[in-house]
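Thread: quick sanity check before group meeting

JM: Hey all, I'm pulling together slides for Thursday and realized we never actually wrote out the predicted structure for the chain we discussed last week. Dropping the sequence here so it's in one place. If anyone has concerns about the input, flag it before I start.
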Amino acid sequence: QVQLVESGGGMVQAGGSLRLSCAASGLTFSAYAMGWFRQAPGKERDFVAVINWDGGSTEYTDSVKGRFTISRDNAKNMVYLQMNSLKPEDTAVYSCAADKTPNPPPHYYPDSDPFGHGMDYWGKGARVTVSS
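JM (edit): ok, ran it. Output follows.
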């Protein structure tokens, strides 16, 4: 069966960096778009970033643009989220997700589906805590 397993979460001070990784198995990884979503305490899950099947197209929520970078390695079935200049408001559980649509329409996740209902598979999440 499909498995998405996140790693790399932890605690960091404001201004620091973390890199999240997501290992995928049980699917033809290169045929899927991949995304990262986060759920802060007491809030709904929300879109962070998405990357298309070959890494040629990426989108981000406005609050992380210029600080976060999503990337993928199709040879290793991995997707990453490099997070720099972290802020306390970035504290959340971060989950990776897979979309059977290899090229989601532009702005679909940031504007039309920020909760990720279009994603087909989800990981269990990795906790990121940013202290001030």
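AS: nice. The helical segments are 108-112. Residues 20 and 52 are 18 Å apart (CA to CA).
JM: adding both to the slides.
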